[in-house]
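BUG: 3D viewer hangs when loading the predicted structure for this chain

Environment: internal workstation, default settings.
Expected: structure renders.
Actual: progress bar stalls at 90%.

Input used:
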Amino acid sequence: MNEIVIVGLGAGDGRYLTREAWAILSAAERIYLRTAHHPVVAELPCEWESFDAIYQAADTFPEVYNNITETIINHAPCVYAVPGDPHVGEATTFLIQESAEKANIPVRIVRGLSFIEPTLGAIGIDGMDGLQVYDAMQVASHLHAPVNPDAPLLLGQVYAGMIANEVKLALMGVYAAEYEVALVHGAGTDEATVEWLPLHLIDQSEQLGNLTSLYVPARPQISSIGNFADTIAILRSPDGCPWDQEQTPQSLRAGLLEEAAEVVDALDRDDIDNLREELGDLLLHIVMQTQMATEAGDFTLSDVIAGIDAKIKRRHPHVWGELEIETVADLNKTWDAIKRAEKGNTAPQSAIENVPAALPALARSQKIQKKARKVGFDWPDIQGVYDKIAEELQEVKEAVGEEELSAELGDLLFVIVNLASWLGVDAETAMREANLKFIRRFQGMEKLMADRALTWQTVGDIEAMEALWQESKQIVG
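Structure tokens produced before the viewer hung:
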């Protein structure tokens, strides 16, 4: 029959060849091997030709796989043998099947034992316990590994230090550098070994080879977004917490704003431990809001993630597309054009619309003025801003009554925010940092007073306080 037979050679030596595979190999005069670097090759009962030379000559793996596919199609009928099972981590199988279908050439698959079973046996774990299986190269192609840390992970084909290095960098976005993992070498052979070591050292192993796999145990605590969403769903369930069950999207609004503010506060203080905790509190609110929307049938957490991921990629065609952008100005124009297209290219009712009212006053003022500047409503140079500040300051001095004073002071603050934009400074951040600086210096004064048994009543006049202030500045900055 004019067919292509793809045979799985199993995971190790000849013990793991199936009877069907052995019968086909024994009957064949000559076969093609994806690679001769496999323990069973020494026991083959037929002549063979490998594609290892193609791996050496080609620049990319797709080029290798395409060359192999073309050769097999052109030499049909033939027998093509691959490591493990033809449908586990074997890209050429699917390419050959696709090409053969177009050429009306039948393809027969002869199963083989994949690397998975011997590897699990070497480690002594159950493969049905939520195991994730990836090709190492697939994980290495990501900057942040797309894996679930709450489930065990098995990566095949960690065959060299270079791929191991790329794998560890991707995985260290999910696991700690010191996280204990296992390299399994030679699974399915008498020389099989399991090497436990910290994740960051896997590329330094001296045993890496074609039969090396990486096993990563599940993290001991829930740390995936999916399982955290389940935690929140349990809180909202009939068997959950009465307080959480009673909450509505509006009842949690104030808490959401507060948690966002606490994240910013942790950033201001450069407090990494607190930042991690506060980001968790903010994430709790995001997932809780999403859970309530899911219960109402409005949208799911998957919808939220899919929406923001698609938006990011749509708005960055210079990263996930072929658009070339040379300047930040070009980038801003592209960004605005994409946003208009998303809204149906409808003209806005106002040039300064869609600035959230819940923003802190300084941040909202700066956003409003930024939108006004886009249509040209601003001073032609920074001197106009300085002149306006002097004018508004004089009006504050001349204001009469609380209402007029408040209005004039607001105008002065508004122009100062405009000055911040001219200087390239975020007004909200500058104000927060000024507050923190004052607190730091004021509390430094209080410590100096405590060390000297002084109180505010005994410290003296403003000149004495100023001296303490200057001294505190020298100490705390």
